[in-house]
Amino acid sequence: MSAPGSGAGALGIDGWRARLDRLVVQPAMAAGAALVRRAGPSGVGPLGLYAAYTLVIFIVFVIATLPHELVLRRALDLGPTAPITVDLRGVRLGWTMAYTVDELRLQARGGDPSLPVFSASRVHAAPSIFGLFRGRPFPLALAADLYGGSLDATLDLDPDAYDVRAKLASLDLGRYAGLRQFLEGTLQGRVGGSIDLAGNPTKPATTGGLVDLRGTDVALEGGRIRGVTIPDLHFPELHLAGTIKAGRVDLDDLNVRGREVTVAGDGTLLLAHPLAATLINLDLTLTAAPDLPDNLRIAFNLIPGDPTPAGERKLHLFGTLTQPKLK
Hints:
Blueprint: H1 6-24, H2 27-39, H3 44-65, H4 68-75, E1 84-93, E2 99-108, E3 118-126, H5 129-133, E4 140-146, E5 149-158, E6 161-172, E7 183-200, E8 203-225, E9 228-230, E10 233-245, E11 248-257, E12 261-270, E13 279-288, H6 294-301, E14 306-307, E15 313-320, E16 324-326
């Protein structure tokens, strides 16, 4: 007698192999195996590509289903002690990884919500793809509808530096509600130009750049500032241009051509931190129009400064932005 299990086990395994071979060659099983081979990747390379494709689809799905408005609100939250709050409405993410915001508003904390410090609509923010790979969206390209005009800008922000390049076109001053917090009356006119700034926000001496702003048909009628009545003023043309180097703003051209009064001058600003402490040093020349009404001419003659034989008034404006002084 042979030992039990020695030959029988071997014969049993061979038998199972034969049965499997016969099963595989069945038409239905053969067709199923061929379908699996065609549908699935074969080899290490195709398998890796298939895995990468699956990962990309998963990431796209996660990004598409994120609550982007909530994420942006939290990212832009300046904290409970900040004087400014950020409000967003209608946030969408495009396939190019660019955000579109229907409305963006900056408001003074606890202030009147109908008088935002800043507001823009149809804001388009496109982050740098290469920057995203480094974990930061900058430089960030911005475009927005701003007070009846437009804004196109590029921002590059770091904790210790910033670089802002902005172009403004046809901004309607009458739509800026922020001025109504301290200015009564009707303000109108259009402003445009360009601003290029770079430096460290906490070190004004590092600031450099260019400023070139122009205004057309600017007017203030029925104006009052903190209870003080301002005569109606109309300025068909304004131009402000200057260069900034090492925190010093050199105003190369300050020209305000008005129907009642024309202002021309030059001078410097010395930037400081906080900005309200910026030092002013401007020399201005005021020229009254020949047909200036008597009530305005009386007010013009009361302006501090040295009169010239031609009837002009020469002023020296100094002090800080919050506490300017004339002599």
